Task: inverse folding
């Protein structure tokens, strides 16, 4: 067995009681299966085609600390994190490390909404959570998902009952910090019943410590019949942070799901998206952007599975890479037999703004139905020298001209955001990121003290 | 204002300009004419600092400064402007953001405060009127989806916004119908003062009917081979360039 995963399997075997006693029976019920999957498959190696651009073993190799006893980090998250997005009145929840922190201020939510700590709710309403937890995140196919399932003790849970519209966006802030390298395993489970609507914004922030942290996150989204879900994941970490996420979406008939993954900054990111269109007339917008410089790496792998007829999917991912950063995109669309009248479009556009940046792109389209409209396209380019010169002749400095071009390149991903306040905020954040100014949100003042 | 002395320039190792001498004073309009491939556009590219071209010899003095030592943006800040023969489309960059960046960088260079949003929009409105540029165009991406005529009007609009000392109009008349030509030329004339100067690069006499030059130069094979008054342009229109070639002893 690989050394990288053995340490966590050993940890689980010796600390099983601690892990389980600080979690919930519903989560514990999957650990035996997760252990088998982890032991059998190990972590994906670079020989695995899905992972040939990211050395997963190396990410898991350090001897990270896990907060198995759920010791609350002394943090002033509520005071410090005045965040956030101006004009966005959201209901805020926090995960500090991977521990849930009860919201300080609860705004009234529509009746029947259940939101909060996955562990607490799983203890209180085991039947509800058990119906969905771990049902679409397939741990047998990916060692990182198995390991997350084995070790995760808590996370965030959101349930929207049928025909309930949650107008107020739900915002989950993940804060990572502390002066020792830690591994943070969290789960997000979102369930929207028939006709339900919700917008969820997940923000990742790591504190400036110069310490390596590893985040693993498995998200499961159940989009019931005719439901509408927006799921944004904004990553704004430090170059020392490593993150591996897998997002699974199950869509029933007529559901409409937007998933937008935004990496403004991180050390090494690996994001997996697995969208399953299981009911007819379902619609998916899957998009994302990644900005990287220095030695940063962003590796995105997507799979859209058209299993039913009359579904639409629209996929757009963009990368802007500077310095010696590296990006990878692999996007697979599968149109199964019988998924007639499918419309599936995929686009991956990349800008290498330096001589040493690398992008690997691999669009894949597999079609087993004969009455469909599908397309995919991938481009890799550099900054348009003519446009740069044109702007400079108008007195715009080269740096500013580069910024304007890079920002323009990303603008259509921002345009896909369906929350106006977030859209505005993103414009500022992306611009600031390209200007090389302080990358963290201006109002953020996170203090996680050791 | 501008003093070009024995200017030589290459692109990809091929010599295009082979010793240009030209002096432009404030208040003057110079026309540079010449057959295709004579180096007209190269001259404008070299003066504005296009990195694709390499200056191998000679000097250019602009308002007392060594122009060739300045970056393209600083040449603009010093008051040089080029109306492009083929204005570049910049998808995703709005005209407003583009112009605001240009204006504010110019002000920064001069040690002035950035312009307020209200002031800026007022200025946009005012200058747009000079070339009858539609407000809709001003809110779109730079040159994206503009017709040929709109692109050229947009160039003169930018000239109006930046108020340069020396403007080079590179084939601004190409691709324009008569109405657009009139609008562009009238726009240029409105911007003309005693304190600025214009170099008009053109194939044809027709633009010079609107923008009257004080001097007409014929550029041929990388050199100015003939200079004269407006009559020279009329002569060229009537007789073509062959007689110049003959005078050069080539025919």
Result:
């Amino acid at each position: 067995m690989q050394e990288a995963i053995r340490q966590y399997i050993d940890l689980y075997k010796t600390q099983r009681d601690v892990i389980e006693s600080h979690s919930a029976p519903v989560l514990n019920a999957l650990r035996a299966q997760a252990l088998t999957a982890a032991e059998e498959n190990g972590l994906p190696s670079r020989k695995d085609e899905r992972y040939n651009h990211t050395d997963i073993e190396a990410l898991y190799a350090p001897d990270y600390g896990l907060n198995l006893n759920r010791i609350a980090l002394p943090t002033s998250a509520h005071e410090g994190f005045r965040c956030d997005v101006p004009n966005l009145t959201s209901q805020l929840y926090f995960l500090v490390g991977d521990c849930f922190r009860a919201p300080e201020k609860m705004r009234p939510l529509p009746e029947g909404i259940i939101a909060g700590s996955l562990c607490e709710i799983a203890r209180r309403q085991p039947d509800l959570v058990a119906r969905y937890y771990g049902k679409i995140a397939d741990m047998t196919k990916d060692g990182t998902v198995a390991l997350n399932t084995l070790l995760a003790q808590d996370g965030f849970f959101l349930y929207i009952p049928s025909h309930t519209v949650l107008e107020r966006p739900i915002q989950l802030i993940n804060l990572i910090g502390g002066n020792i390298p830690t591994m943070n395993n969290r789960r997000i489970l979102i369930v929207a019943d028939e006709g339900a609507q919700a917008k969820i914004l997940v923000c990742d922030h790591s504190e400036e410590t110069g310490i390596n942290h590893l985040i693993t996150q498995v998200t499961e989204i159940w989009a019931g019949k005719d439901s509408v879900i927006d799921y944004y994941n904004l990553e704004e970490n430090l170059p020392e942070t490593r993150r591996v996420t897998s997002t699974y979406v199950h869509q029933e008939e007529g559901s409409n799901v937007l998933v937008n993954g935004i990496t403004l900054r991180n050390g090494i990111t690996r994001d997996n998206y697995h969208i399953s269109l299981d009911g007819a007339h379902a619609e998916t917008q899957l998009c994302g952007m990644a900005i990287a410089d220095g030695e940063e790496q962003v590796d995105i792998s997507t799979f859209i599975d058209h299993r039913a007829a009359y579904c639409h999917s629209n996929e757009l991912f963009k990368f802007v890479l500077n310095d010696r950063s590296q990006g990878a995109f692999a996007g697979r669309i599968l149109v199964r037999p019988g998924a007639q009248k499918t419309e599936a479009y995929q686009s991956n556009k990349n800008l290498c703004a330096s001589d040493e940046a690398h992008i690997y792109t691999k669009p894949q389209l597999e079609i087993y139905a004969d009455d469909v409209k599908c397309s995919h396209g991938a481009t890799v380019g550099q900054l348009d020298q003519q446009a740069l010169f044109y702007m400079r002749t108008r007195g715009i400095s080269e740096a500013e001209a580069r910024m304007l071009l890079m920002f323009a390149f990303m603008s259509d991903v921002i345009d896909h955001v369906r929350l106006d306040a977030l859209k505005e905020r993103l414009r500022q954040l992306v611009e600031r990121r390209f200007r090389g100014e302080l990358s963290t949100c201006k109002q953020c003042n996170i203090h996680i003290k050791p | 204002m501008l003093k070009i002395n024995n200017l030589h320039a290459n692109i990809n190792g091929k010599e295009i300009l082979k010793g240009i001498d030209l002096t432009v004073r404030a208040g003057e309009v110079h026309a540079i004419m010449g057959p295709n491939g004579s180096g007209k556009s190269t001259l404008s590219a070299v003066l504005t600092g296009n990195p694709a071209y390499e200056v191998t010899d000679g000097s250019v003095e602009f308002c007392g400064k060594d122009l060739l030592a300045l970056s393209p943006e600083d040449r603009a800040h010093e008051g040089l402007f080029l109306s492009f023969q083929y204005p570049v489309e910049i998808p995703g960059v709005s005209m407003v953001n583009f112009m605001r960046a240009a204006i504010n960088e110019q002000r920064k260079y001069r040690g002035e405060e950035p312009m307020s949003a209200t002031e800026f929009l007022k200025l946009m409105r005012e200058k747009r009127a000079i070339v009858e540029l539609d407000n809709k165009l001003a809110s779109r991406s730079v040159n994206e989806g503009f017709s040929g005529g709109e692109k050229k009007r947009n160039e003169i609009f930018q000239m109006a916004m930046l108020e340069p000392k020396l403007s080079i109009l590179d084939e601004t008349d190409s691709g324009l119908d008569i109405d657009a030509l009139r609008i562009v030329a009238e726009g240029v004339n409105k911007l003309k003062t005693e304190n600025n100067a214009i170099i008009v690069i053109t194939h044809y006499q027709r633009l010079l009917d609107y923008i009257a030059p004080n001097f007409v130069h014929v550029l041929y094979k990388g050199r100015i081979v003939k200079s004269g008054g407006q009559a020279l342009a009329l002569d060229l229109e009537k007789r073509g360039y062959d007689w110049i070639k003959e005078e050069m002893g080539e025919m």
In short: The two ends of chain B are 37 Å apart (CA to CA). Chain B has a mean pLDDT of 92.
